[in-house]
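User: Just a sanity check before I run the rest of the batch. Below are the structure tokens for the first item. I only need the designed sequence back.
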């Protein structure tokens, strides 16, 4: 029997400067595996005074707390510096130069806390022609070269929502960088700056796509390759009831089981299968056959079969039927926090000031009124010398 230990990141103090999508996702990963994450929000009218506030637009707030701090004021900067003296990780979502403009340059912060890990995530690279430009996931994906490889042959490049750059190439890569820095800190005893950008992050994710341009796997125009919708046995097909089935029968033995299930065994011909001139007709045969039955009927036919043919489930039916979402990595001896049914499907959000004073009390023993006070909608540290 495996002895269950504490979550792997328990005891780590993480400061997340408020942002949207990539950095909050990195913070969410850290929080789900045990870190204590405190989000620093902008000052608002009534934070920390007990009056209810609305959550911000950030939905990735599970297990996090918040304080509102005016980082443009010297008092707010002094409070953050005091917190960072004992913190482990700072998550910086700002464009290049913003942290420095707040008198919070990494050089200064590391001089005061050499163990601090400062994770800085930008969209574009910090150098080059796009460094000072604003952008979003689609822009980072575009200049990485990956967007040019996504989409159908008869259409424009098509981005898969904001999954690739914001979350995979951004937040997830940022979390990886933090874990590498934490591992290195166990030997050196020192923190460091971890610089991530979404262009390089998503470009790295696309390594195989880039390399495959040199061989038959991906050496044709967009939408005409094996894995980008060009191949009839690696595609999505509509069903009679409006549902869809996903087909990925790449290997010959899986393809054989696919065409058997479709009652199209005459297509199980290796020569025909590899003849690209036959693909349009084969795709049409597949399309017409899938349209003859409802998705549930195809599910019954292929359930348990090694045909690499599965239903395209939507989030609503997953929520209604399966209920459960799980963390991405299961550490058997030191697991992260499990997700209950509510946490799997909804986010309560996080209003500025929620839970933050309690966290500062737990971390440092600071209390409102004695060590902290509210000034112009933001929390500041009381200077004992001025009392």
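Assistant: Here's the designed sequence for the first item:
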């Amino acid at each position: 029997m495996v002895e269950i230990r504490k979550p792997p990141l328990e005891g780590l103090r993480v400061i997340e400067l408020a942002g949207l999508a990539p950095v909050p996702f990195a913070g969410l990963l850290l929080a789900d595996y045990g870190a204590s994450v405190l989000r620093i929000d902008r000052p608002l009218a009534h934070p920390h005074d007990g009056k209810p506030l609305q959550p911000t637009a950030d939905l990735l707030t599970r297990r996090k707390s918040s304080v509102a701090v005016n980082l443009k004021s010297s008092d707010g900067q002094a409070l953050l510096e005091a917190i960072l003296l004992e913190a482990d990780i700072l998550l910086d979502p700002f464009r290049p130069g913003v942290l420095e403009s707040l008198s919070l340059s990494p050089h200064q912060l590391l001089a005061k806390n050499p163990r601090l890990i400062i994770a800085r995530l930008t969209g574009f690279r910090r150098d080059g022609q796009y460094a000072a430009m604003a952008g979003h996931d689609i822009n980072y994906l575009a200049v990485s070269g990956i967007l040019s490889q996504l989409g159908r042959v008869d259409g424009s490049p098509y981005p898969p929502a904001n999954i690739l750059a914001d979350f995979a190439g951004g937040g997830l890569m940022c979390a990886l960088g933090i874990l590498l820095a934490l591992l290195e800190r166990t030997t050196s005893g020192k923190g460091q700056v971890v610089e991530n950008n979404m262009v390089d992050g998503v470009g790295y994710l696309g390594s195989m796509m880039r390399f495959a341009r040199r061989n038959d796997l991906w050496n044709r125009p967009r939408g005409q390759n094996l894995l980008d919708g060009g191949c009839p046995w690696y595609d999505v097909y509509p069903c009679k009831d409006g549902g869809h089935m996903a087909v990925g029968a790449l290997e010959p033995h899986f393809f054989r089981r696919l065409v058997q299930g479709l009652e199209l065994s005459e297509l199980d011909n290796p020569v025909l299968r590899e003849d690209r001139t036959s693909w349009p007709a084969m795709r049409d045969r597949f399309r017409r056959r899938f349209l003859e039955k409802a998705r549930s009927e195809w599910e019954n036919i292929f359930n348990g079969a090694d045909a690499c043919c599965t239903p395209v489930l939507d989030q609503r039916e997953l929520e209604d039927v399966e209920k459960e979402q799980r963390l991405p990595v299961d550490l058997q001896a030191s697991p992260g926090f499990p997700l209950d049914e509510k946490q799997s499907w909804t986010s309560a959000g996080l209003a500025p000031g929620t839970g933050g004073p309690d966290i500062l009390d737990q971390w440092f023993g600071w209390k409102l009124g004695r060590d902290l006070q509210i000034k112009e909608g933001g929390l500041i540290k009381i200077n004992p010398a001025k009392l």
